């Protein structure tokens, strides 16, 4: 037996479906929630994320959370800083490939759009790069943000070989 949907039924079910599908996504600790105004359902959410392999680095990620929309806007801001010791031992287990290692993923829509955070190690400049990006094109481009944490002054920094 088939149950046809009446016109507009999917539109009424979509917010509940989105809430169900997005529940439990994300590993960040919310540290900020700024309303964009009285007559909007959109807020700026700020999450604090600690690098699991380099716990001396904390990233703060901000983006728009649109409660009643099926998809959150793709704009993202990212700032990563050294907040504790960084040792050479911490760097031995990180992915040093050019694509880096994904540290965080959060769904931003029911249509397979995600916000991801990856770490890339720039061995030549001895810098950890953190890249936040959206997996769906928005307004003609893929939105992204980049932050870097230099190893200079940490226990992980190594003096370059003399020529």
Task: Compile the SSE list and pairings.
Elements: H1 9-22, E1 29-35, E2 42-50, E3 57-66, E4 76-82, H2 88-91, E5 101-107, E6 114-122, E7 127-134, E8 144-150
Antiparallel strand pairs: 1-2, 2-3, 3-4, 5-6, 6-7, 7-8
For the secondary structure, the number of strands is 8
Number of domains: 1
N-to-C series of helices and strands: HEEEEHEEEE
- What is the 3D shape? elongated
Q: What percent of residues adopt helix (DSSP H or I)?
A: 10-25%
Per DSSP, the total helix count is: 2
Structural class: mainly beta
Largest sheet: 4 strands, antiparallel
Low-confidence stretches: 8-26
Biggest β-sheet: strands ordered side by side in the sheet? 1-2-3-4
Cα separation of the termini? 79 Å
> What is the overall pLDDT average?
80
How much beta, percentage-wise? 35-45%
If you compute it from the alpha carbons, what radius of gyration comes out, rounded to the nearest whole angstrom? 20 Å
Report on the architecture of this protein:
By secondary structure, this protein is mainly beta. It has one domain (9-150). The protein is built from two helices and eight strands. It has helices at 9-22, 88-91, and strands spanning 29-35, 42-50, 57-66, 76-82, 101-107, 114-122, 127-134, 144-150. Strand 2 (42-50) and strand 3 (57-66) form a beta hairpin. The protein is elongated and about 60 Å long. Residues 8-26 have low confidence and may be disordered.
Quick overview:
This protein is mostly beta strands. 11% of the residues lie in helices and 39% in strands.
Tags for this entry?
mainly beta, 39% strand, four-stranded antiparallel beta sheet, 11% helix, 163 residues, 2 helices
